[in-house]
Design brief:
The protein is of the alpha+beta class. The protein has 2 domains: 102 residues, Translation Initiation Factor IF3; 105 residues, 2-Layer Sandwich (Alpha-Beta Plaits), CATH 3.30.70. It has 3 helices and 10 strands, in the order E-E-H-E-E-H-E-H-E-E-E-E-E. Strands 3-4-2-5-7 form a 5-stranded antiparallel β-sheet, with helices on one face. A hairpin with a 5-residue loop joins strand 8 and strand 9. The longest helix has 29 residues. The radius of gyration is 29 Å and the shape is elongated. It comes from Gordonia soli NBRC 108243.
């Protein structure tokens, strides 16, 4: 006669998955990088000319900040240096250069476009680019939503694996948000560089891109019978 039938309880199963979520936001901030750059044969003259270009620019930014069009701005590093260019046959006289870096964050995009039009045609002014971003409050709120979506994505994946292996329930036992690479924390991670297109007139038309956000979360589960 056959022996008694023994029922073996299915062992618990460990499942590790990564949940992810993506989102986009309309830009709320535009940070413009500006460089004052002046060259010449005399150090004192070059520095004085650079300051003369710089002063009206910072006066504009101070007024824009007072009016609420600019949320913050700063005039940063000042570099004064010299070099002796080589024309292929001989070394030429020493050339002195003064560079002053300026950065400003606009919340009024129309004002930004108007002022870039004027600044860009000035002698000694270089527009380095415009970076689009969102307010810290908006970023924090959207990240809460995306983390919830990423968790839901992880649960759905783990449940599918568990059911495929004959289990019916999953329980989360660990949650880890992977540490981003250092470069991932640059503003570029959740901001886009502006595209500047030339209009028929000598003006600049700014076309902002949506700001992309992304969340990835590693979740560990156990699956029971």
């Amino acid at each position: 006669m056959p022996g008694p039938i023994r029922l073996t309880r299915m062992a618990s199963l460990e499942i590790a998955v990564r949940g992810s979520a993506h989102g986009r936001c309309a830009p709320e901030r535009a940070t413009v990088s500006i460089t004052i750059a002046v060259e010449g044969g005399r150090r004192e003259t070059v520095f004085r000319d650079a300051v003369a270009v710089h002063q009206p620019l910072v006066d504009d930014l101070a007024a824009l900040s007072e009016a609420g069009a600019v949320s913050n701005w700063h005039s940063g590093a000042v570099r004064v240096y010299s070099h002796r260019p080589f024309d292929g046959e001989r070394q030429l006289d020493r050339v002195f250069t003064t560079r002053i870096e300026v950065s400003a964050t606009f919340v009024d995009f129309e004002s930004l476009s108007d002022h870039l039009d004027r600044w860009a045609v000035g002698d000694g002014v270089e527009i380095g680019g415009v970076t689009w971003g969102i307010a810290e409050e908006t970023h924090a709120a959207r990240m809460v939503e995306l983390r919830r979506e990423a968790i839901a994505d992880a649960v759905a994946k783990a449940t599918a694996y568990a059911e495929a292996l004959g289990h019916t329930e999953v329980t989360a036992v660990s949650v880890t948000e992977p540490t981003a690479e250092p470069d991932s924390f640059r503003p570029a991670r959740f901001s886009k560089r502006a595209m500047v297109a030339s209009a028929p007139e000598p003006t600049l038309e700014l076309t902002p891109e949506d700001v992309a956000l992304e969340v990835a979360i590693d979740v560990g589960f156990t699956a029971g019978s």
